[in-house]
Amino acid sequence: MATVTAGGTAIISRDGVEQLCGVLAARGYEVVGPARRDGAIVYDRIEGVADLSAGWTDHQEPGRYRLERRGDGALFGFNVGPQAWKRFLHPPVETVWSMRKDASGAAAIATGDSVAPEKFAFIGVRACELHAIAIQDRVLMQGPYQDVPYALRRQAAFVVAVNCSQAGGTCFCASMGTGPKADRGFDLALTELLDGGSHDFLVEVGSTAGAEILEQIAHRLANDDERGRAAAIVARTESQMGRRLETQGLKDLLLDNLEHPRWDDVAARCLACANCTMVCPTCFCTTVEDHSDLAGTSAERVKKWDSCFTLDFSYIHGGSVRKTTHSRYRQWMTHKLATWIDQFGTSGCVGCGRCITWCPVGIDITVEAAAIRENPQARKGQSHGEP
User: Are 225 and 262 part of one and the same domain?
Assistant: First the structure.
């Protein structure tokens, strides 16, 4: 086997993916990949190729998701499901600290950053999701206040990306410049090659750690034809985007139209269920709860995912700042597509389309933005009295 360094390409077979899972597990990683559970593709712990969703694809439209059989044995022939990788790096429920008293009354306190982090190996990370992880890195690791448990898990993670071979009905990553090809943030990146009567994978090496793992897997150097086939797959996927979002001037457009009647229109349909924030791969908002037992011998603080769609999220002394669905949807969309840029230097949207697919009433963020762009400043100057 030829040595492939960072930036190089190689070819592995379907059996090579099996070997990849085994090598990572042998190195102490919890291997996580896309698996079929309860009628959806979810991210779960896997042992090998048999646990992947071979031969399945998904059909996604606003408020609709279903799995369908493919006519081949593709391992990654689907798009993104209801879960994001953030549930492993930024868990839905996490103990921040806990205290226990022994019989003598001495207290022992444990904090979240004192626990050894799990070493995750993610297999099947899409380009849009790599960008989402990079956004959470910026928020939770690279800002003035670091989330230490997140940083420990993130630094220990090994990432195997997969370039998309098809676009979903709600995908618009091409509009956001986040896909469908993985360009950075991975240790290894796979492109599934099913044409030509073979079932191989072009492997791009993105790091020294990736090169070391590839050395343990049967591979050969990729040739120009194979690299060309992989590039053609990505190009075809980019041409198939199910949605488009015009981003030119979008930040100013939204902030100049805070009183647009479209906010009332969407509020009439929105259930404020928070599905969009729960499935979003970049949303990071949390709340904390303090628990203690009646005897006073134990206590803990637990961090949980929260959402700007909940009434209590903006609660301050005297009541909630955002009492209406109108103001909460507007806050979410303008933060995601506009003020996030001021805070973190990038849009908070990566174009994965999850918020469209998993909205129970099919609200489409690309349609809402287009409606405001089509008729801007329709009701300038009026105020709802809420931020």
Answer: no
**Structural domain harbouring 34:** 9-238
Is 3 inside any structural domain? no
Q: How many angstroms separate the Cα of 198 from the Cα of each of 20, 84, 201, 304?
A: 19, 31, 10, 46
d(CA 355, CA 25) in angstroms, rounded, equals 33
Q: Answer whether residue 114 is part of any domain.
A: yes
DSSP state letters, 14-81: HHHHHHHHHHHHHTT-EEEEEEEETTEEEEEE-SSGGGS-TTEEEEEETTEEEEEE-SS--SS-S---
Is the CB of residue 21 less than 8 Å from the CB of residue 31? Answer: yes
Q: Are residues 143 and 230 in the same domain?
A: yes
Whether the model clears a pTM of 0.90, i.e. scores above it, the answer is yes
Alpha-carbon Rg of the chain, whole angstroms? 23
Instruction: Report the alpha-carbon distance of residue 161 to residue 176 in Å, rounded.
Output: 18
Residue 387, pLDDT score: 55
Are residue 140 and residue 35 in the same domain, yes or no?
Answer: yes
Residue 382 confidence (pLDDT): 46
Provide the pLDDT for residue 196.
65
- In terms of residues, how long is the chain? 387
Q: Are residues 169 and 195 both part of a single domain?
A: yes
Phi, psi at 34, each rounded to 5° = -75, 125
Hey, which residues does 316 pair with through a beta bridge? 319
CB-facing half-sphere around the CA of 138: CA atoms within 13 A: 18
Low-confidence ranges of the chain (pLDDT < 70): 115, 196, 378-387
Residues 38 and 143 in one domain: yes
Domain count within the chain: 2
Cα distances from 92 to residues 11, 67, 132, 152, in angstroms, run 37, 26, 16, 17
Taking CA atoms, 321 is separated from 129, 164, 167, 220, 328, in Å, by: 32, 41, 39, 60, 10
320: in domain: yes
Measured CA distances, 157 to 118, 133, 183, 296, 305 (Å): 9, 11, 18, 38, 21
Residue with tokens 């405001």: 372
